[in-house]
Amino acid sequence: MTILFLLGCFLPLLSATVVLDFNHIERCKDSLYMGTPPRGFTDNNLKRICQRYSDRPRYVTLYDPQKRIPVYSAYTFKKTEGDRRVDYPWMFEPQLAETDGNGNMQPFPTGYLHMKFEDSQAVLDDYSDVVLYERGHLNPDQHQSTPHDRAATYTLTNVVPQIREFNIGPWRQYEERIRLRLNNFCRGVAYIVTGVTTRGNMIRRNNQDRVAIPEDVWSAYCCPDYDRNSPIIWMLTRTSRSSMITASPLHPLPLYLQHTI
């Protein structure tokens, strides 16, 4: 696959949150630098989600309903103290399975969830009996400030399986390092996109492949009005073979993705 990854220095509002093009949806494109999403993801089965919560777009996600994980989530960073909330309910995206409703993500019901939702996305049961992995955010609540923006990160369409020791160790340290850097040195809006690559490993439930396990997690950010010399950087971490995080300028990222997606 050829990846043309554009991250710059890096939708009229519809009721449905699964859209054909982020650029056609008012406010969702605001999560992307100059309204430009990463390009080159050509799989027609991928779904573009304008993540809506409480009737407002919050960020965007490119989602793979066959692997039941996000390919990436893109969002604007909000200055915050970095505290974590644990009382938000986990949610799902009804629009991946049906076009009815108001377009908002919804909390998982306490009882029966129709099979059509399980067919289109991950559900809580996919993570309930998994020992090695836990839910790892691509758009973390620590990078958001308002209660609604933070609550909107707690949807399974924004998380991937991560090894627990990695999620609470190197990856959390990375998220905190970026939070402090953008808090202190970004003078304007900062744009972040975080995604994954996979190699075929899956979480299984009831003898069926359910949720893809990432091979790598990559992240890039851009702050156009920045008082340091390196406003663009991309971070790559190996989630399967090691827990090492490496940082470099943005330009190697398209080549890396071209050979791994």
From TrEMBL:
Domain of life (superkingdom): Eukaryota
| Domain ENPP1-3/EXOG-like endonuclease/phosphodiesterase, chain residue ranges per copy | 56-242
Q: What are the DNA/RNA non-specific endonuclease/pyrophosphatase/phosphodiesterase domain coordinates in residue numbering? A: 55-250
Q: Supply the InterPro entries for this chain.
A: DNA/RNA_non-sp_Endonuclease_sf (IPR044929), Endo_G_ENPP1-like_dom (IPR001604), ENDOD1 (IPR039015), ENPP1-3/EXOG-like_nuc-like (IPR020821), His-Me_finger_sf (IPR044925)
Q: What Pfam families does its record include?
A: Endonuclease_NS
Which keywords does this Swiss-Prot/TrEMBL entry list? Signal
What is the residue range of the signal peptide feature? Answer: 1-16
> A single Gene Ontology molecular function, please?
nucleic acid binding
PANTHER family (alphabetical): ENDONUCLEASE DOMAIN-CONTAINING 1 PROTEIN ENDOD1, ENDONUCLEASE DOMAIN-CONTAINING 1 PROTEIN-LIKE
The protein's name is Endonuclease domain-containing 1 protein-like
Q: Which organism is it from?
A: Champsocephalus esox
